[in-house]
Records
---
Amino acid sequence: MARIVLIGEAMLELSRKEGGGWNMGYGGDTLNTAVHLSRAGHDVAYLTAMGTDPFSDDLVGEEWRGEGLDTSLVLRHPTRGPGMYAITTDATGERSFTYWRDSSAARKMFALPGIDAALAVAEQADLIGYSLITLAILPPEAREQLFALCRRARARGGKVAFDGNYRPRLWGSAEEAREARDAAIACADIGLPTLEDEALLSGETTAEAVAAHWSKLGCAETIVKLGADGARLPDGNILPPPEVLHPVDTSGAGDAFNGGYLAARMDGASVTEAVIAGHRLAGWCVMRRGAIPNLD
């Protein structure tokens, strides 16, 4: 069993009920991946900050521990709480988000008492994972602390996975986002960019160009996610999903792919086998509502 630490922001999630109204759940890109990895049987801790409010207590306690997550690295902010987002979907299942996250506790996680101890624990993990969204919510000095953590973990034999999730509204400029992304790529072993995000951020319109950029910066195992078209493997082959689906809700699809891929790789699967596992988990996810569908 691999020891895995995911780092990022968790939020309350509002999603439409069948027939009207809203469901309250939770999500966040790295949190979604953490839950999928835990469901796959790995020892997974989530490093973030939450509040001391009832919503935070419920998520950290009943919800996350119920999914098997180790919550010992969840720090608590005395006055801030979780952010929130609402998912709306169109007729094809394509999702859009509305966010309320500017004052979330996670933005201050690296300034809280206990962060040094949490980073020391994270450094011992077999795999550390985070995303460009993680970097977007952190101030520059905290980003540098995260990069330093990754370098220390790799020096002792651990691996680092980085997902290039780009959300323009979280950044002051595309230039700032590119700089942070490239710094993260340089200290990552496994890269999980999405072509659509990379085109928006850097203007790279082919999977080959994206892979070349990430590889040049030192990320040897780069899987370029292509949505319904599949994924580009490091050897240049495109592996499509095993079946054509008509999604109900695509929120969390990339995070599910990451969870399936990383779980398989940490179990010793080949890159090709892991991509297939990622496709299958993402396919299961998009046929259900919410970023982290309940197991069925």
Note: The chain has one domain: 3-8+29-77+109-286.
---
Amino acid sequence: MTKHVFCRDLCLERGEPHEGTGNAPQRVLLLAWPRGKWRTPRWESADMSEALAGSIHAAAQKGLHVALVDRVGESDGLPQLMAQPEQVYADFESEAALIDAINDYADGKVFAGAHDPRITIIVCTDSRRDACCARYGFSTYKALVAIADPAKFHIVQATHIGGCRFAASLVVLPHRQRYGRMTAGQAPAFIEALSRGQIFLPAYKGRSDEPEPIQVAELAALKWAADNDAPASHVQLSHNGLPEVAKDGDELVFAAALGADRLSIRLRARTFHIQGNCGVVAEGGGSHEIRWCLDELSKAS
């Protein structure tokens, strides 16, 4: 029997950084569905009616991320539907009403429901999509649930959210923070950082809606501040213009201001062999892509 090769392990061996891949969906629906019934694609999951599947598929076609979610031992205790970033949740008297709520939300209308003020953490444990998400995601999910205060955190396991090669993959809502390569051992520090309203820098991917180089440079500045006990509530970046198309070896220099501190941050474009999930690895596929990587950071005199 051929030994399984995990895409996460290959990604680490190749030195590809997770920094710069922080984009997260602007709007998300969380639909309660038992993990054992998840399938790929998610609208073909077990026991899902044709009408409900069609609604989820149509929402996805409109660019809405609909995640199937579950909690170990608590499938019946989850609300049927939750909308983020609105933090609204509801149960419905009929499937028709649930479908209407999904359709309306896909069209920009939020359904009526209660407000959940807690921080929501979705952890990809989708074994149907990728073995790394099952192997690393589920252990991280269990560690988070074991230590987090349920009065402050709503933690669920979820279907594919992207970034299998950076498993465990997480999204924190409504803040739209994406994290990668999270481990069970990091769970206490991660929860502690979120409890203080801070970013957990070791696994943070970068700020959503910003180009990759800006995400990488900003995160490098934040890590420098943390390592040097410097205040860093806000990073101001300046540069001479981002290239539309990067080539291997290209350089990009940022000037960063963190309060009174001034940094010079140099990034370099590097080509990596990308195999986004274990299925691609098994098939021998993949592509070569340019990633912006931190090359040098120095404090200006």
Note: Helices lie at 7-13, 50-61, 95-106, 131-147, 187-195, 212-227, 278-283.
